What does this fold into?
Amino acid sequence: MSDSCEYIICGGGTVGCVLACRLSHAGHSVLIVEAGPEDYNEQIMSPVAAPHLHGTQFKYNMMTVEQPGLGGRSVPNHGGKLLSGSSGINYGLWTRGHSVDYDAWAELVGDNRWSYKNMLKYFKATQTHYDPNGSPEKYGFSGPITTTAAARTYPLRETIRESMLVAGLEYNPDTNGGSPFGFGPFTENWKDAQRQPASKAYDLSKATVLTNKAIARIELNESKTATGIVLIDGTRYAATKEVLVTCGALKTPQLLMLSGIGPQSHLAQHNIPTIANLPVGENYHDKISATFFWKLKNPEKGYALGSPAFNKPEFRHGNPMEWVATISTPHEELVKAAQADNLDLRDPYLQEPRGNVEVMIAYAPIAGGGSEFRVPFDGKHISSPVVLLLPTSRGSITLASTDPTADPVLNPNYLGTETDRAAMRAGMRLSLQIMEADIASGIVEGETPLPGYEPLTSACSDSDLDRRMQIVGSSFFQNAGTAAMGTVVDTQ
Ligand SMILES: Cc1cc2nc3c(=O)[nH]c(=O)nc-3n(C[C@H](O)[C@H](O)[C@H](O)COP(=O)(O)OP(=O)(O)OC[C@H]3O[C@@H](n4cnc5c(N)ncnc54)[C@H](O)[C@@H]3O)c2cc1C
It folds into this structure.
């Protein structure tokens, strides 16, 4: 191949593949460089194998630093390391953000192109919505990513639907249509029971694709314009138009900092000359999750994964879940927590109800990656994971060394704010209420807590919930914010 092209894309992940496809189809010469391999083996493509990809060569298997919000535990955090990036290894959940979040974001960065109304055409262009009778105002029907929702009928479908109603949630058939509130069908993006990795869904045949090649740094000229890249083996490639950095939220700050773009004082610690003094790596946040496990009264009826009677072939076509619920932190508790955090009471976060936390019910004891407490997949338990959707805690990603292949230092500062803890408490209480309805209906015997702990009820104290979060809290792998719009990059 030529060592020069118009665009070089650093990182062949989810975003990199989309950009490489669009730019090359528009007639540009594009080189996309990916550190990991191209692979579509059975384990990668299977919708039920994603949890088994932890710890493999298809991932950066990193650990956070010790987290005070998690009682001092350090927990695993991951990103995909293969062509397609994290879309090649993730859980396939397809959740569109709340319209209010996009609008607040657009206002914050002063560019209305990022508002929900203006982003909608891209959301639509991306997807082929699962319901051909769905609203064309809200969804697209000819995009490269096919979605499915509540696509498999599990034995507990109606029981869980009923318990969501008993817990006071309203049914929302369109949780991906701009407002996630209430509960509705759990949406995924498997197609014909297979993963849709970005490098397959977006045609790369017109781009030059390099795999198993890690980039050591970006080259910049005297006017601070990126002109090319250097690989760790010393090979150089030049870009006549642009170098696009799409290495994901965990590795993008590392590549920028190794190229002289980052906080000056931190770069100086590693003897890296500063080309642009920018808050790269600051503003890091991730979503934390906490899961409850529930012992079934009659496991022989085949309600959960692991039971011989839980055996319809379609149960292997996606995650064993049907419903997802999203709620706000109750306003009074939110304001009290925000005051404790010294949050400006005019903050957009406090103005309109936001989707602060979500609750899922899984027909398997699914735990987050960092929780030490696990229950076997033997058909005797279901679970109710709770996920914080809008973390206000901010941490940082910094360099451990100047070695581009070393892991950076991850400090997401999980549950660092009272606002985040209040949101998690609200979600955990809802999760307990939903499952208490299942205890009442005789499906569930009760909560299985960690050894030495009492089961919790929705009437438990805040400190009981806080303690539980500290012990079982773990990453939901939604890393973000490390090259933030408005501080590190502009809105273009
Ligand atoms: C385990 C897991 C489960 C998830 N589940 C879901 C889910 O169910 N639903 C959902 O919406 N989101 C999920 N996510 C998050 C989602 O997949 C990511 O937010 C998204 O894919 C990020 O896209 P990206 O392009 O920014 O980065 P990525 O897709 O991670 O791509 C970054 C790419 O850059 C490459 N790279 C990095 N550094 C270099 C370098 N120096 N040289 C060359 N290449 C480099 C990496 O190898 C990688 O391929 C999950 C993530 C993980 C890790």
